[in-house]
Amino acid sequence: MHLFLLSQAFFSAAVFFTAVLLDLVFGDPPTTIHPVGWQGRFISILWKQKPDGGKCRLFFFGLFIVSSGIVITFGIVILIHLGIKQLSIYKESIPGFVIIVILNSFLLKGSFSFRNLLRAGDRVAAALSDGDMDKARYQVSYHLVSRPVDSLDASAVASAALESLSENFTDSVAAPFFWYALGGPAASWCYRYVNTADAMLGYREGDREWGGKAAARLDDVLSWVPARFAGWMICAAAVLPRLDARGAVRTMRHDARNCSSPNSGWSMAAAAGALGVRFEKIDNYVINDGGRRPEGEDIKGLKRLLHWSLVFSLPPVILLNALVLSLIQRTFNLPAL
Fold first, then answer.
1. Which residues have CB under 8 Å from 105's CB, separation 6+?
2. Residue 280 pairs with which residues in a beta bridge?
3. Which residue among 146, 169, 213, 331 is buried most deeply as judged by most CB within 10 Å?
4. Angle of helix 175-201 relative to helix 94-109, nearest 10 degrees?
5. CA-closest candidate to residue 23, choices 221, 244, 172, 180
6. Do residues 12 and 325 lie in contact, with contact meaning Cβ atoms separated by under 8 Å?
7. How far, in Å, CA of 214 to CA of 84, rounded?
8. Hey, CA dihedral for 313, 110, 70, 203, is it positive or negative?
9. Any residues with CB less than 8 A from the CB of 115 and at least 6 apart, and which?
10. Count of alpha carbons within 13 Å of 114, Cβ hemisphere only?
């Protein structure tokens, strides 16, 4: 059992590290050929058929969008994964092992996005550095936030970017990692579908208030553990020079629940405390009220913090994945990949 656990840990590590390497080198493919883009188009097509009027009808239609997408996503990913598992007979050879690792890495890689997330922050930082406020507001609005930005000054734009980047570390990295580790690629891709549905429909306005409620509530449930995991990984990474680990832990414990969302505040509060800055969304929340106002340069500091948060998150998810795979093998006496 211990030997099998070690072999599964090695396999899991190979898959996760290869997936991260693929992301850092290549980023995401164009939306037209990205499976998350396909999920978004599926949601958009269904939403155009929404019923007229009635909270109940909208809620159940939204529930249909979520459940049908989960079933389709689960079925497709399971079929692909089962196809990869058929190659397990070649796992003992080095070329076979490498091929299986790469195929599993591609399945994992598609469900998370790190490089492209940080590049969105780079665009905002560059515009702020150039003093081009119109461009900075456009970049932060186009890539990162949905709030009105026309009246935001440079510090408020930097704050919006920092808030979104740290919050999206949960949605784009920590949660897909966690669900892949716990339930394999089907789980991470189903999470990604729910998160995409929440991003598109989960607004408290018009028909989306009830049509997107099922997606929003399910996303809250699925992100509950990953959000707290992401917060603690940011705190761990804050031990690096020029960061404040104690401030990260203190702010996370004190301010993580300041947001209306049960999950978004954890990674934001940890990042605000680590950087020593104050996050504020007007008429919504304030995080780390005693911190200084953020600047464009803080986006570079957050990038460094999130890079190391990613590194710190890998050992726990690799161990969890190895334990799950070992449990599958022990329970069903099957080779697990």
1. 14, 15, 16, 18, 19, 22
2. 286
3. 169
4. 30
5. 172
6. yes
7. 33
8. positive
9. 23, 24, 26, 27, 28
10. 26
Exposed / middle / buried, residue 229 (Cβ in 10 Å: 0-12, 13-18, 19+): buried
pTM of full prediction above 0.70: yes
Burial class (CB in 10 A: 0-12, 13-18, 19+), 174: buried
3-state SS, residue 257: coil
Q: Please, which residues bridge with residue 259 across strands? A: none
Rounded CA-CA distance 166/305 in Å is 10
Coil vs helix vs strand at 205: coil
Structure tokens at 195: 């998160």
The CA-to-CA distance between both ends of the chain, in Å, stands at: 16
The dihedral formed by the CA atoms of 81, 86, 91 and 96, expressed in degrees to the nearest 10: -80
Nearest Cα to Cα of residue 188 among 204, 174, 198: 174
Widest Cα–Cα separation across the chain: 62
Backbone angles phi, psi at 262, to 5 degrees: -75, -10
CA distances from 146 to 132, 142, 200, 253 (A): 20, 8, 11, 27
pLDDT in tens, the chain (337 residues): 565 567 788 889 999 999 999 999 999 999 899 999 999 999 999 999 998 878 999 999 999 999 999 999 999 999 999 888 877 666 667 777 888 899 999 999 999 999 999 999 999 999 999 999 999 999 999 889 888 888 889 999 999 999 999 999 999 999 999 999 999 999 999 999 999 999 999 888 888 899 999 999 999 999 999 999 999 999 999 999 889 999 999 999 999 999 888 999 999 999 999 999 999 988 789 999 989 999 999 999 999 999 999 999 999 999 999 899 888 777 766 554 4
Hey, CA dihedral for 248, 254, 259, 265, is it positive or negative?
Answer: positive
Residue 135, φ and ψ in degrees, nearest 5: -70, -40
Q: How far apart are CA 15 and CA 8, in angstroms?
A: 10
